[in-house]
Design goal:
The protein is mainly beta. The protein contains 3 helices and 23 strands. The strands form 4 sheets. Strands 1, 4, 6, 7, 9 and 12 form a 6-stranded mixed beta sheet that branches. Strands 2, 3, 5, 8, 10 and 11 form a 6-stranded mixed beta sheet that branches. Strands 16-15-19-13-23-21 form a 6-stranded mixed beta sheet, with no helix packed on it.
Length: 458
């Protein structure tokens, strides 16, 4: 919005405001409508924030626009007209998809760009920022709106809560605003054609946070307008031309530990991971295989401890909610949610992380333990896994099945295989060894005796 335009507009309305105490502003069609030379559209910036590890979800946000309440003119303040033809305003929707490119969060705390106030977003430690965002614009087009008078027209914009999976609305703002914005549209006489004196145009827009019920100040001079940025505005109201939402996801890490005197540390175990309740099509879950093998070795080089049926099996490096692949399957359920079933293969000390599971999705991890005793979860005393990067091994003690809520999941299985030699084996071996020694000693003694006897006879 151009300050000079609002300055002229505020000045022209100053006289009208003073007269309005005597003559009410007419709601009739004294002017014909012409938006040809207007700023016919405005926009609200839309930020969708998520963890750096998460993929952008497929989600659409819709907005409603309704007429705001009129406010009578008073000393030093402009009158506000209730918005007209709200149903003729077009646009009002914006979509995000897995194809969108996200930007790592910046340390921005002022102006029209929101600050993502979470742990890690600090000026002192920018390297710890843990989020990224996609920014788009929601358009509001007033081309078809028929204004009837010059003045300030007020509209209330509300973001509809679509209850999309994992989406938190109006993140970081006053919770009482409920994703509501007040839009004041400044309409003035169109003087672009001197021969026409009954045309109107849109001079500019101001967007406030929440529902505003006060009127803008009258700023009749350039000096006054300079003191109030962007011209005539509502005193004390917070301008907020953006709405921020978060996509809440968590990561699922699962690992493998074996123990016991008969346990093979290079044996591969099969894990079956089931992720269900994913509501958005094309939801993409990245998989971090850094701490595991990408595939089980081929049969020719497979160790003897591993089931030969696992030879050459690959660990999926990504899972897409509505697309089956060679190493995982997807089923669309009767409630239109998706269930992903994937098989993974792990040796002792290895672990895998599936990233970006949306809030309220469910997970279940089972394994084929074969002739090992299996225990769900890995306690720190048994762990040889360091997933947090700090010194020392870490527990993976969360449940092997559950619902994604507000924390990452770390779980897995401990497999134990041990054997005890049968009673008496050691005794038998010792006894046999003793008999051999006795026999050997006897033979030596006999040889010596015979040699001695022969010597005496000679």
């Amino acid at each position: 919005m151009k300050r000079s335009k609002l300055a002229a507009f505020a000045a022209s309305l100053a006289v009208a405001a003073s007269l309005s105490a005597i003559v009410p502003m007419s709601a009739g069609a004294a002017y014909s409508v012409n938006t040809g030379s207007s700023e016919v559209s405005t926009s609200i910036d839309k930020y969708l924030v998520m963890k750096k590890e998460a993929n952008v979800p497929n989600v659409t946000f819709n907005f409603t626009v309704e007429a705001g309440a009129a406010v009578n003119a008073s000393a030093g303040k402009l009158a506000v007209l209730a918005g007209v033809d709200a149903d003729k305003i077009t646009g009002k929707t914006v979509s995000f998809s897995t194809a969108d490119t996200a930007t790592n969060e910046e340390n921005t705390t002022e102006g029209d760009t929101p600050s993502f106030t979470t742990s890690g977003n600090t000026a002192d430690a920018p390297e710890t920022k843990d989020e990224k965002y996609v920014k788009k614009s929601v358009q509001f087009d007033f081309s078809a709106v028929g204004f009837t008078e010059p003045g300030v027209y007020r509209y209330i914009i509300t973001e509809e809560d679509e209850s999309a999976q994992g989406i938190t609305y109006d993140y970081g703002n006053d919770t009482t605003s409920n994703c509501v914005r007040t839009l004041d549209v400044y309409v003035e006489n169109d003087t672009s054609d001197p021969s026409v004196d009954d045309k109107l145009k849109i001079a500019g827009y101001v967007i406030y946070n929440g529902t505003v019920t006060s009127a803008p100040l009258i700023n009749a001079t350039e000096e006054d307008i300079t003191a109030v940025p962007n011209g005539a505005e509502v005193e004390g109201a917070a301008k907020r031309p953006y709405i921020t939402n978060t996509y809440s996801t968590q990561d699922l890490t699962f690992g493998k530990v074996v123990k016991g005197n008969q346990a093979s540390r290079d044996k591969y175990f099969k894990y079956t991971v089931v992720i269900s309740g994913i509501s958005a099509e094309n939801t993409v879950l990245s998989v971090d295989l850094t701490n595991a093998d990408a595939a089980v070795p081929a049969a020719a080089s497979l160790n003897k401890a591993t089931n030969t049926a696992y030879a050459g099996k690959t660990n999926p490096d990504a899972l897409t909610a509505d697309t089956s692949a060679e190493n995982y399957t997807v089923v669309k359920e009767s409630d239109d949610t998706y269930t992903i079933t994937a098989e993974y293969y792990l040796c002792h000390g290895q672990y895998i992380t599936i990233k970006g599971l949306p809030e309220n999705a469910s997970y279940s991890i089972t394994e084929a333990a074969e002739d090992y005793a299996s225990t769900g979860t890995i306690q720190q005393a048994d762990s040889v896994i360091n997933w947090d990067g700090e010194a020392g091994y870490d527990a993976l003690a969360d449940a092997v099945s559950g619902t994604i809520s507000d924390a990452d999941i770390h779980t897995g299985y401990v497999n134990e295989r041990k054997g005890t030699l049968p009673t008496g084996v050691i005794m038998t071996v010792a006894g046999s060894a003793a008999l051999v020694l006795i026999g050997f000693a006897g033979a030596v003694a006999g040889t010596i005796y015979m040699k001695k006897k022969k010597s005496e006879e000679d």
